[in-house]
């Protein structure tokens, strides 16, 4: 029997992402407005046999994020970026994030169907339901729903999109020059979808795509979000700090999928990781320490402020971290994932750390686990995590671009292949074939 193989995805993030200083890294490219950088990243990922380039999305502006070049300070339209990457590659999958809150089912279904045709079946949709006043400010006609209702509406949204994708049946496109029949309308269904939250008539003006439907990705983490993921997700993204947390999340998703009548084997969990690679272990560790030095206290505090939901704007950087939490965090905030996990990460340093030091610690990877070492060591750690069954694949977040992906491809991938856990060639041409779903 052939050995189970892991999957690899890469976050296409700029000017920075989980590492808040990425754009200031001396090796980072600066041409994030033109196509070259993204085309280069696509080629690099395909040379390394990655399964997926993943493009996140947001539609809001935070002045503090813009000042410091933090994640989301710039955002291209994800579909346009995906088209650039797909145009210069032939096997790499391209995942884009689109919100069910700010798009209509028809436009979203067609954007993805178009991309799936034009890429030869390599597209995935990361399904998000948006929250937060800053996002909704740009869509005054949309009312923000509560968490659970957002997902109820999301269910309808995805149902309607799938119905639109399926509107053209097998053989509906005839294009027979002899007879003059272009499309057999008897084989084109009108979904006429009517839900509690939304309605769309259809049919779509495109046939089914080469892989049937684009691959569906989900990253919800609340109980309702996980249920949504277990219902729709072919791929689930997770950011968990420990192997045990990852395992627990995977088991929970599999249970939820079973309860919904789905085969849990069909759901692939990708765990986010931040590799920090060096020619020697000592160089890799020095690099990890170096990363902290290019995040300014102001940038770190701004970044941590968003995730902790604490108001930190007026603080002196040398205010003790423990004092800030004690004085400013509500019990609910103090129990939040951002603060609990950061406390764990700081460990014995918690008592002596300033708010700037703690915030910079948070901002090196936004709690994404850092995998530090030589290419061999990083490969061994990833293989071990994969073989434990806690993850089916990894989503690599860069510390600089495109260098992080180049280093991973050259220093880590050959060792994953030598360990027998990563293929040397793509299994097929569509993303579904490569993911085995
Ligand atoms: C790896 C990963 C990628 C994500 N990408 C995005 C994104 O691009 N845009 C976004 O608004 N939310 C993104 N999210 C947030 C999730 O969609 C989700 O809202 C979050 O995990 C909280 O779960 P909940 O909605 O069930 O509370 C991402 C989450 C993870 C773990």
TrEMBL record:
GO terms, molecular function: monooxygenase activity; oxidoreductase activity, acting on paired donors, with incorporation or reduction of molecular oxygen
Keyword Oxidoreductase set for record: yes
Binding site for FMN: 97, 151, 222
EC number(s) from the headed UniProt entry: 1.14.-.-
Gene3D superfamilies named in the record: Luciferase-like domain
Keyword Flavoprotein: yes
Any Pfam family matching the protein: Bac_luciferase
Keywords from the UniProt entry: Flavoprotein, FMN, Monooxygenase, Oxidoreductase
Matches recorded under CDD domains: Nitrilotriacetate_monoxgenase
Enzyme class: oxidoreductase
Domain Luciferase-like: 35-390
InterPro entries (UniProt xref): Diverse_substr_monoxygenases, Luciferase-like_dom, Luciferase-like_sf, NTA_MOA
PANTHER family: ALKANESULFONATE MONOOXYGENASE-RELATED, C2H2 FINGER DOMAIN TRANSCRIPTION FACTOR (EUROFUNG)-RELATED
Family to which this protein belongs: Belongs to the NtaA/SnaA/DszA monooxygenase family.
Protein name as annotated: NtaA/DmoA family FMN-dependent monooxygenase
Organism, scientific name: Cellulomonas humilata
């Amino acid at each position: 029997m052939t050995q189970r193989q892991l999957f690899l995805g890469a976050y296409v993030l700029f000017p920075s992402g989980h590492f808040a200083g990425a754009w200031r890294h001396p090796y980072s490219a600066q041409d994030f407005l033109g196509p070259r950088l993204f085309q280069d990243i696509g080629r690099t990922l395909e040379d390394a046999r990655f399964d997926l380039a993943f493009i996140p999305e947001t539609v809001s502006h935070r002045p503090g994020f813009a000042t410091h070049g933090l994640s989301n300070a710039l955002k291209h339209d994800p579909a346009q970026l995906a088209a650039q990457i797909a145009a210069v590659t032939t096997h790499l999958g391209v995942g884009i994030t689109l919100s069910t809150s700010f798009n209509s089912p028809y436009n979203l279904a067609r954007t993805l169907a178009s991309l799936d045709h034009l890429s030869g079946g390599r597209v995935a949709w990361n399904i998000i339901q948006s929250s937060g006043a800053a996002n909704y400010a740009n869509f005054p006609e949309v009312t923000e729903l509560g968490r659970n209702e957002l997902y109820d509406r999301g269910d309808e949204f995805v149902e309607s999109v799938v119905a639109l994708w399926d509107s053209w049946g097998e053989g509906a496109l005839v294009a027979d020059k002899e007879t003059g029949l272009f499309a057999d309308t008897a084989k084109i269904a009108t979904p006429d979808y009517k839900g509690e939250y939304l309605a769309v008539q259809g049919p779509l003006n495109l046939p089914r795509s080469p892989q049937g439907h684009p691959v569906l990705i989900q990253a919800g983490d609340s109980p309702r979000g996980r249920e949504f993921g277990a219902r729709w997700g072919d791929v689930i993204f997770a950011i968990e700090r420990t192997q045990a947390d990852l395992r627990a999340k995977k088991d929970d998703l599999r249970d939820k999928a079973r309860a919904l009548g789905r085969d849990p084997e069909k759901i692939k969990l990708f765990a986010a990781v931040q590799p920090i690679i060096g020619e020697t272990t000592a160089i890799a560790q020095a690099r990890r320490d170096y990363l902290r030095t290019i995040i300014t206290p102001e940038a770190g505090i701004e970044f941590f402020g968003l995730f902790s939901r604490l108001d930190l704007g007026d603080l002196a950087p040398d205010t003790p971290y423990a004092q800030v939490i004690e004085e400013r965090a509500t019990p609910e905030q103090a129990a939040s994932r951002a603060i609990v996990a950061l406390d764990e990460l700081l460990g014995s340093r918690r008592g002596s750390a300033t708010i700037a030091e703690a915030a910079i610690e948070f901002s090196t990877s936004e709690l994404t686990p850092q995998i530090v070492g030589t290419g061999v060591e990083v490969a061994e750690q990833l293989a071990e995590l994969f073989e434990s069954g806690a993850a089916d694949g990894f989503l690599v977040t860069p510390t600089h671009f495109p260098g992080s992906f180049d280093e991973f491809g050259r220093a880590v991938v050959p060792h994953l292949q030598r360990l027998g856990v990563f293929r040397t060639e793509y299994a097929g041409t569509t993303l579904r074939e490569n993911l085995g779903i």
